[in-house]
Every structure is written in structure tokens, then in C-alpha cells.
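To whoever is covering the structure queue this week,

Two jobs came back overnight. Logging them here so there's a record in the thread.

Job A:
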Amino acid sequence: MNVYKVSELIRTVNLELFKYNDISVEGEVTNFTRSSAGHCYFSLKDARAQIRVVFFAMSARFLKFRIENGLQLIVRGRLTIYEAKGEFQLNAVSAEPAGLGALQLAFEQLKKQLEAEGLFDPARKKPIPLLPQSIAIVTSPTGAAIRDVLNVIARRYDGMHVQIYPVRVQGATAAREIATAIRNLSRWQLHDVILVCRGGGSLEDLWAFNEEPVARAIAESTIPIISGVGHETDFTICDFVADLRAPTPSAAAEIVIRAKSEIRSQVDHAVARLRHIVESRVRNYRHELRHLTSSDRLGLLPRRIASVRDRLERRRVALFRLLDARAKLLRRRLAACETPLAKYPSRIERERDRLRATVATLNAVSPLSVLSRGYAIAFSRVKNRRKPILDSTAVGLGDSIEVQLKRGALACTVDARTLGIESILPEVGDIKS
């Protein structure tokens, strides 16, 4: 019996599976995950079985739609056994929806996503100017669409300022060029409206106008955008996001530019309507005026005016008299106040003399006057309060005292004291003699 190592067995089985190198499997997607590197892992199942599928990022990046759980897919690839885990799996190289084209599915998925974000909401759409002064057209400069648009504009309003922003409208780089053109025009702010145009074609031909970058550039534009892509039956994501959808490029030109004759006709109609309204009101006012002039009550108006004028004059005179009387009363009161004030100067002088005498008396008995003659006052400190020292026995040797002079004070310490009788007692030497 031949005994295989695990790796040898898996390698042998993988060689046997090489005949399933290019097969297609249909089933429902389940357990879908995507790694940070962009690899997709999921299972395909039917009512009785399931198989693991790995879709590496190098191949998955070409998908036009998003793989989701519940999606019925036809996956093309080869059967292998993943050696590290011994798992039987299908290495996918391409996939497409079963029963529905990949582009159509991608269209529906993006439409659903942007609608949920509110990009199709009519409330966010900008109004198209009635008569723009400058128009930008984002389209191919060599296509039939630009010729149709320019012909319509020239026929309806000759001399309109038009700028063509040339882009590819089909191919791998078309969506990026269209989105860049819209963002640049929005940033420059040189135009009143932008036309995004392309002639008809298949879903694949119009796919650049179904790309998410184009849709978001249109939604972010500060300038109103009219979408004129394809034929009347063609609908693109660009049509849903744009501020206005035109069925064809020519229709877009007719919408953005109203014919001079239409504008002139509308202005003439507005002028005629305004004239009719003004004339009608003038007739009504004239009729009312005639009615008032023939009325008896109108004849009383001059007398009423004269009566009101007389009443106002009387009130003016009464007000003048009232103010004059008030002024005279105030003058009398002021004169009465001035008479007593005339007596005050002599009385003030007498009071000033009395104040001087009182000040002189106070100065004579003031301790400061005594101090100015060379005397001093001694104070002791008792609980942060100064107390005059009247007796030498009130302090002890070594106590701190304060001596107040006429100017300043001295902090002193008691070194000796007497009883106050030394000046009258004879000296010892005198007694002996």
C-alpha cells in the first residue's frame, strides 16, 4: 500500500484537478468578506451543496459591480486544494450576475446607493438660469453631439458665449476626464450653466456617465448642470444626479437657450399685461375721484380744515400763555431766594472770627504747644495701648517706654528711676558740713 505525505497527496490531487482548470460554476453568494488587500472570499451554494471561492484582488478589480450576499453569480475559474488548510476551493478569475448583465447590475447598485445618500433629491437641485450669459459644454469635440448643440444655440441665440471643455466620452479614462472637467468648471466660476453631452449608444458606450466619480462631481458642482446623454430612452446615473435631464444633446441646447423670438414675445406679453393693469387702476382711481368731487361731504372738507386750524391756533396761544406764566413764577421765586442770601457775608465773617478765637484757645491748652517748649510726654504700652506715665513707680527697670517729642518719638528703656523728691532734699555733703 502506497502511503502519501499530506503535501504529496494534495499536490497529486491538484494535478488531477488540472483538467478543471477553466470551469464556470453558478450559485448564490454567501459568507462574503473582503480583506484589506482587496481579496474577496465567499461561498457559492445551491439547495444541496456549497463550495469555497477565492477572488484575488488582481482579478476582482476588473468587476463593474459589487459582490453581495444573496447575489446569484456565474463564477469562472479553476478548482484547487489550498495546501495550508487542505480546503477544496474555486480560484475565480471572473464573475457575472446570473440572468442579468454585469453593467446593468452595477448600474442598479450605484443608483440605489446614491439615491439612499440623497443625490437624486429634487430639493438639492439648482435652478437653471433663464438666459445664461456663458455656457460650458463638457463633451467630445469630434462627436456629433457637439455639432448638434452648437447648431441649436446659434439658431436660437446667435452670439452666445460658449466654451467647449474637450473630454473623452467613452473608454477607460473617460469618467475621470469628465469628473475633472466638471470640478474645474465649478472651481473657475466663469459660466452660468454646464451642459454634459454625448450622443446615443449601447450601455457599454454610455458607461462613463454611470461611474461614481462623475456622479459625485455633478452633485458637488456649484454651477447648474444639464445632462443630455444618449437618446430619449437612455437613462444614466448622470441624468439622475444632474439638476435637469434632457432627452438628447439637442434638447439640452434648446432648454438652456430660449429663442430670442420667445423672449421677445414673453416681454411684449408682460408689457401689454402691465399696461392693462396700470390703465385699469388709473380708470378706477379717476372714477372714484369724480365720485368724491361730486359728493356733498367733499364740500364740507374746507370748513373742517378751517375749524381744525382755528382749534390748533387757540391751543398754541394757550400753551404760550401757560409757559409765560410759569416763567414769571420761577423768576419771582428766584428773586425771593436772593434777598436772604445778601445777609450771609457779614454773618459768615463773624463766625470765622469766632472760629479763629476757638483755635487759638485750643492751641494754648494743647499738649503739642507744651511740647514745642522742650517738654516731652512718656508713655507705657498696656495691651497695645499707650498710657501716659504720671508716676515713676508705674514702670520698672528695664521696661520699654515711648517718649513723645514735638517732632517724632523715642523708644527708650528704663535704666533708673527716682521718687520725685531729689530736687528738694539736700545733698549728703551739705548735711555734713
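Job B:
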Amino acid sequence: MAFNTSADLLVKYLNTGLKLVPLRDDAKTPNIKSWRPIYDNPNYWTEDKLRKESHRFVNVATCFGKTINDKQGLDTYLPELDIDSQKVYDLLFVMEPSLTAYAQNFTFVIKTKKSCGWRILWREHKQHKAIHTQDCKAGCEFEIKTDDYGLSSLPDSTHRDEPEGEFHYKNTGKSALGICDGFYDKIMSQLSECLTEHKTKQQQQRSNGSTNSITLTTADIQVICGSISPYYNKPHRQKLALALAGLLHKSSVGPESALQLIELLAKGDEEKNSRIAAVEETYKKDAFPSQEKDGF
């Protein structure tokens, strides 16, 4: 049975820093032409506009990334931890019970349909890199969504597999999104053993500052993007993204800079996530693979 999220609840969500996207009664299709403007503009919704368009919110979701400023006017960012395995839940909230109290007091905690399923949202002053399921070892799956990763359903929306209302998401934490600087690092410290060897080394390099890779400045990225963008046309976009990723990797440009460049180049591309994935896959490989054949 379809229902509409109340305007008062939507306004409450808006004021916490959630970036609201209206969903249809199937609980998965955005009830808006495109949710990209909502991702790109943290001030897309005003209370008045939200109340006028509250009829669109049969269900409600959030996107991630830059959100409302703090009291000092500084940028804040909205990430989400999505727990998909019992191992991750135990590492976070059984082995480290202080995190349970912290989450319940300072974050927005959502119970999902899985028995071990939880989603935790908060705000930080820093935009962190996303963690994907493929970055995790089998049986230790989790995700951290930090950018234009996609959408995440909010209470009291129905589950996309049960749009008739058998399951509704519930918030078990606070109704506010606290600014929890360092929470991402706490999570990653607890879950380091869950990451694949490649991802673990990459995280360690970041924390130690031991990578010798080149960091592109914002000006560098804009100049390179401006030179390439006239050629970034269908049907060659994926080939160009792969070629550019390979060139950057072999030129010792760091993965963060490469991703920033591709994200700018692919801005507005409906298959942007595929371009980003191409960069991530490229950087998982050696920049200069050995030419030796198997054997001696």
C-alpha cells in the first residue's frame, strides 16, 4: 500500500543534513527527472519548496557528498556505512562496544532487512574515499558511501523488494546527524582486516603519507580536463577513460588525483560510475607489469 512521507518529517530530515530524493511507490525509482541537481547542490531544497513538493515523496531516500555547512559556515560531508556481514558487525559493535554508544548518541542508525544489516549516517568536515563491496574479503562485506555513489532509503520508506509495506526502515539512533570527525578513521581501523590486500596497502599508504605518487593541483586538473573534454564524446567515452587512467597511472599520478580528474571530466555523464570504476580497476594493476613469462 502506497503512502506519502509527511512534510514535517521531510523538513526535519532536511535540517539534519540529509540530501532528500523522492521515490515512487516501488521504493526505488526517483520521482523526479534527475537527482543529480540534488547531489550537486546542498541547498537544492528549501523548507517551502520541500513542503510544496512533498507529494512526490511516496518514499524517501538520500544521496551523499557535500551537505549543509556547520555553525561556523564550514563545509560538511555526508557518508554512510552499510554493514552487510555478521563479521563486520561483530568487529565494530561487539569487539568495540564503545562504538555502539557513540553511534547511538551521535549518528543516524537505520535497521535494514538483513539480520546483520545496519546503515549508519553521520557528517564530517572531510570528504573520504568510498569503500566498495569488491574491496572486501569474502564474508567481511561492507560499504562506505561518500560521493555520488547512489541512493539510500530512509525511514519510514518501504523496502524495494517489499513495496506493499511488509518492511519499513526504522531509525534506531538519533534524529540528528552529528559532526563526527574521525569516525571514518575509527571504522577503517577496526575493519582493516576485512579489506583485500590491495586496499589495505592503499589505506596504509594514505595514513603514513608514504606514497611517492604525484598529486595534481586543482588548476592542473582543470587544465587537463579542459584539453580533453572536447574529445569526450559518445561512443568513445569508456575507451578514453581507460586510456587516460592508464597514462596517469604510468606517469605516477596518485589515484586520488586520477579520480578527481575523471569525476570532473565525466560530470553530467549518465555512466559516470563506469568511468570511475575504470580508474579504480586500472590502479589495482601494476603500472609497469613484468614482461617475464611464467617459469625461469
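Note for Job B: The chain has two domains: 7-194, 218-283.

Please reply-all if you pick these up so we don't duplicate work.
Q.
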